[in-house]
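Regression check, fe (ii) ion case 299:
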Amino acid sequence: MDAVQFGQHPPAQRVIVHLSDTHLMAGNAPLGGVYDTAANLTAALTAVERTGIRPHALVFTGDLTDLGEPEAYAALRSAVEPFAERLGAPVVWVAGNHDERPALREGLLSGAPTPEPVTGVWDLQGLRLISLDSSVPGWHHGDLDQSQLDWLREVLAEPAPLGTILALHHPPLPSHLPLFDILELRHQDALADVIAGSDVRGILAGHLHYSMTGTFAGVPVSVAAATCYTMNLQRPAVAVNGMDAGQSFHLVHVYDDTITSTVVPVVEAPTGEYFTAEWVAAMARLTPDERLEAFSRKR
Ligand SMILES: [Fe+2]
Ligand SMILES: [Fe+2]
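Current build output:
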């Protein structure tokens, strides 16, 4: 059924599915000898499709492959492209520290295997999405060089009708895990300077392998966990390691006046059947007062 409005906010204007850190390996070799990254990606894509959402874009915020192998990019492309086609959504590939720019360009973008940053601008029916490349060839920490910042400043000089969302791999936020502060996005002040006063409304990132939110220069930042493996945060920060559980993706709903980021766990579990499309349709036939009476009043 079409979107209904039972509350104060009109339905979201745009919806983005945000996935991260697929870390595919050539020949689907187990990552770290443990993780089946292809199977875990398939599980995540299946879960996205189950939502029934027709997103305006699918954004993968980096570490698309673990070692930058051409065969891994090919496997990723053949898993995601038919899926994106079914959903009718463009795919935004963001480079991460585990990626190799030339192989990413050739394997996912059908471009020449050149080493310059992988950036792009998408017009999602008035919502602008800008992908940045925070990878530093040869290193795992992140950075944005002056020419990329200058480019970003130039693009942002002209505002978009529904504002702008940035996507990059390394989040411009601290992590409570010491290991990630070594691999942080460096020179964050320079990025803050560029987005100050611009129409940037949200920042999507990955890299941490766990979901996290914060603000950067007044802009909300949403970090999606990984599809491959996640960090077991039940441990003390100094002893956090990966586990084959807790994978999730985010639904980013862009409203008139706010953006929400909803974490969707990729999990199989017995689920109730009380709320249905028919139930919502029945609610839609009631007046707002009748709806409160029918569903809000305590019995
Ligand atoms: Fe990663
Ligand atoms: Fe990363």
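Comparison notes: The pocket of fe (ii) ion (ligand 2) is lined by residues 63, 96-98, 169, 207 (CB under 6 Å). The longest strand covers residues 248-254. No diff flagged against the previous build.
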